[in-house]
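Following up on my earlier thread - several people asked me to post the actual chain instead of describing it. Fair enough. Here it is, all 269 residues.
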Amino acid sequence: MSDLHEIASEADFEAHISSLPPSALLVLSFHTPWAAPCTQMRTVLQTLASLYTPTTPPSISFVSVNAEELPEISEQYEVTAVPFVVLSRNNTIIESISGSNPIRVREAIEKHYQPSSDAGSTEKQSIPPPLEAVPREIDEQQQQNHQIPQAPSAGQGTNGINGRAAEESPSKEELFARIGELVKAAPVMLFMKGTPSAPQCGFSRQLVSILRENSVKYGFFNILADDDVRQGLKEFADWPTFPQLWVKGELVGGLDISILQNPYPASFI
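Reply from S.P.:
Thanks for posting it. Predicted structure:
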């Protein structure tokens, strides 16, 4: 059976993808150790990978990438949140799935998988019905995207690479529903310009420093990577500037408020 290969370095990644034939489906799972939904997604992908008999040459490959430790790979695939699954073939992105959505991941793999013509009848033709072993305890709010330290490069839009078309803008109701989930994605959520490792404004940099000085565990969202959220959050929060700090789904404020008070849950200090 196939397995989920953990990528140790950029060189390891390049060697791995170079070993795959152009027809092989590459399933990349981007994760961070601090995002709880990533644990569920890892279990899902390990189970899915085990359903496939290895072939020569490979027809499918499952790999896991630490999005924080290997930021250049994350940037290559435009990863701004975890868990984040990318399906790729011949260095071209076929589909990207953001957030913990096991059913969608399973269906995407089933849709795009193409058995090798010489793999024989034992090669997996499709993925079976949803697995009972998939953990279901994680709250829907926890399954929302957890931001990771990787901002788009200068001039880079929010479209996917290789010329993928932008998705149609959501309605205000849909956008507010998404934002309502994002502000509760972690007990402490920071909406900032850039990422903790590469802040794009002085205020965001200062607020990241405050959180680190207080040893606060937090999720974050890079508003520069999603203009819909950037503009929608201003109205949703009735707060026109960034960064914005949210605690337990409630807006605390910006940098000035965070300096004057300690709003962080005790369990996150």
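The chain has two domains: 4-112, 168-268. That should answer part of your original question.
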